[in-house]
Each structure stands twice: as structure tokens, then as C-alpha cells.
Amino acid sequence: MKWRLRKEKSLPSVEMRKVFVKALSDLMNVNPDVLALDADLGIASGWITLEKSYPAQFIDIGIAEANMIGVAAGLSMRGFVPFVHSFSPFASRRVADQIYLAGSFAENTINIYASDPGICSATNGATHTTFEDIAFMNSVPGMKIFHPADSVQLDWLVRTLAKMRGLHYIRASRKVIPDIYEPGSVFKIGRGNLLKKGSDVLIVSIGELLEDALSAASTLESAGISTSIIDMFTIKPLDVDLIRSQISNKKIVITLENHSIFGGLGSCVATVMAISGSGVPLRIIGVEDRHGQVGSIEYLKQEYGLTSSHIVKVALEVF
User: Would you state the pLDDT for residue 7?
Assistant: First the structure.
């Protein structure tokens, strides 16, 4: 595992969807079995580029996501490597039974790109908001779940999953996210990344909120509070060993996620801590028992308390 945190902040970040398209394009160019399936969202996802470049390897299923999963399962049975895309609620809630039966039970290979999860739906609307997808996917046998922190991690992930069999769920924004890692970084599925070592507080986060976790750690450090940070980009399988090694002697553990507090990253970490009998206080920062709303990402972060300042406030409660 060879990854490095990004040092040069002036380098521009790239839209996540463009990174996905570039990775898929490269894969399709060398492997005719790699296919892209979209649900009438080719312009939104950028996958329309793939349709133009590789018409024989692209299928627009239309607004029929359940059918898309069924078609992907059938293609998998014929030896193809399907990648499917839709907005996160339509790639999870709407296709739950198909994922479970045609995907998991039938032991097929389907790579699912669930774009704009949670607050990333922004002005697309409350019905397009998904705060519960990790909870469902976690319960599906054989499913692997990922929430990449930036474009570097997403690029590595797409290229890696194309070589693997099984069900893979990638929740990620379509838009620009500040890069955390240096280009060319290599990761390991099922292993979290310890970005920073500290002795007082442990923050475990995923995805686009990792930047807020890093900002909170900087604030806490300036106040003399030593802080560890874990990027748990693989949510299932979870890096249990890393969590156990880092909770020891901490005054508080905080999880931060763009997901419901029920059934997500926080619940996974809580289970590990409970089984370990750590006795360390845990605070789960996520979306309370609420539906989505409409607004900018910054507005929604404030509305749901998914900010660096809220992390700091929660951490300071034990000091």
C-alpha cells in the first residue's frame, strides 16, 4: 500500500465523473468485455462520451434502473464486466431486490456507481437524496462498499475493481472534490488509511467530508489536542484491526459521514468498539432521523451539522 497525502495544493482537482469516464475509457480500450450501462443519465454522468467512443460497449437502459441491474447480471453470467450508473437513490433504494437476488444470490459481478449520495445531491432535490444506502448495502451478502475521498482514490478504485469479481458499490460525487492524495497513490481494499497519528482524539471519516475532518484536526492540534484521522474508504470489508489499534487510550472517538447515523460508518465503528470492550466514548456525526433537503452543499453541511466546527465542538465536550 503506497499512498501519500497531497502536498501541492495549487494543483487543480478534476470532476469525479470525468475521472470515472477516463478510467472506464482506458479499461474499455484494452478489454472489450468491460461494459458501461447508464439509466438515461449519460450527460449527467459524462458517460455519453463512452457511448460515442465505444458504442458496442455502452448500453443506455433508459429510466429503468431495476432492469439495468438485471441486464448487468445477465451480462456478468456471460463473462462481461459491467459497470452501471445512476443517481444514488436509484442505484440503491429503487433496485434493492434486484441487487440482492440478481447480484448477490446469483453471485454475479456488478460494479455500481451511485453518484451524488447524501448532501451531494444538492439542488437536485430531496427525493434524490440518499442517506440510507450504506445501511442497506452493508446487509447484502458479499457486497463491498466504497466511498472514495477524492479523484485519485476513485481512479485507482475503478481500475482495481475491473479486475475483481463480485458486487461492488461505489458512492461518490460527480463533482469536484479537493484531492487528498498525491496522483499515483495506491491503496488496499479492506484497509483504512491512517492519515495522521495522535493520542487524544480519533476521527474516522469517509468521502467528501474527509477534508472537514482534516480541518477539524488542525484546529484541535492548535488547541493542544493530539488527533488521529482514519480514511475508511472501504466501509465493507471494514478495517477492524486498524480501528482496534487506534481506539486504545483515546479520550473520544468521532465518526463523520455523509449518511444517516443509523446503519452507516458510525454504526460499523460502534460495533467494533462494543465487541472490543474499549470503554472509549463514541460520537457519531451524520444525518439524524431526517429526509433530504434542497440547497447548496455548504448549506446542507451546516443544516445537518457535517462541518469541521461541529467536529471540534463535539471533541471539546470531553476536555
Answer: 81
